[in-house]
Amino acid sequence: MFPTFKIICLADEIDESKVLINNDLTNVWKQFSLYSKDLDMSKYEWIRNQFVVEKYDYFGLTTAEQEMIIDLSSDSTLNQMFHNENNIVTFWLRVKNDFLALRNKALEILLPFVTSYLCETGFSTVAVIKTKYRSRLMIEKKLRSAISSMIPRFEKICAEKQAQPSH
């Protein structure tokens, strides 16, 4: 269900936190399941891998969008890019403007699933930071920077920090 958390659970150093985090993740999973229980995933195979979908029965797509899928699936450069990407959302963000309508529709469908990924990343980060040896750390303010994809510019931060003046 949560692959990143499973990797962390294999480590022996966070035994006391595993149960709490597992319960929290299970509750989050149940909440997201309520939102997507009526979701028929077979309608969205064209989003997950448009290069292996054999039938061109795309639910909710116009004829023009179906033609875009055919063009997209026959593009070998995009096929290579798809297999090099680790993330479906990243692939759809990189798709050329030729498939803009198709890209927007795919991202509209994928957007709710990104939330669960961010939630899992947050819980996993807390599990790594708060081991049994560091369980008293107050990480509320530091968590934001820990799960951010932005890389801090430490040189600039240190340059702007005023040194302690001498007496």
Task: Describe the overall structure.
This protein has a domain at 41-110. Helices cover 63% and strands 0% of the residues. The model has no long low-confidence stretch (mean pLDDT 74). Helix 2 (15-36) runs antiparallel to helix 7 (100-129). The termini are far apart. It has 9 helices and no strands. The chain has helices spanning 3-9, 15-36, 45-48, 63-73, 76-84, 88-94, 100-129, 140-147, 154-160. The protein is mostly helical and 167 residues long. It comes from Glossina pallidipes (Tsetse fly). This is HAT C-terminal dimerisation domain-containing protein.
Question: Key terms for this structure?
Answer:
167 residues, 0% strand, mainly alpha, 63% helix
Brief summary of the model shown:
By secondary structure, the protein is mostly helical. It contains nine helices and no strands.
| Ends distance | 58 Å
* Global geometry: extended
Low-confidence stretches: none
Oligomeric status? single chain
Strand composition percent: under 5%
Helix content: 55-70%
Average of pLDDT: 74
Order of helices and strands: HHHHHHHHH
- What is the SS-derived class? mainly alpha
Major sheet:
none
How many β-strands, per DSSP?
0
Task: Evaluate the radius of gyration.
Answer: 22 Å
What is the tally of helical segments? 9
Organism: Glossina pallidipes
Protein name: HAT C-terminal dimerisation domain-containing protein
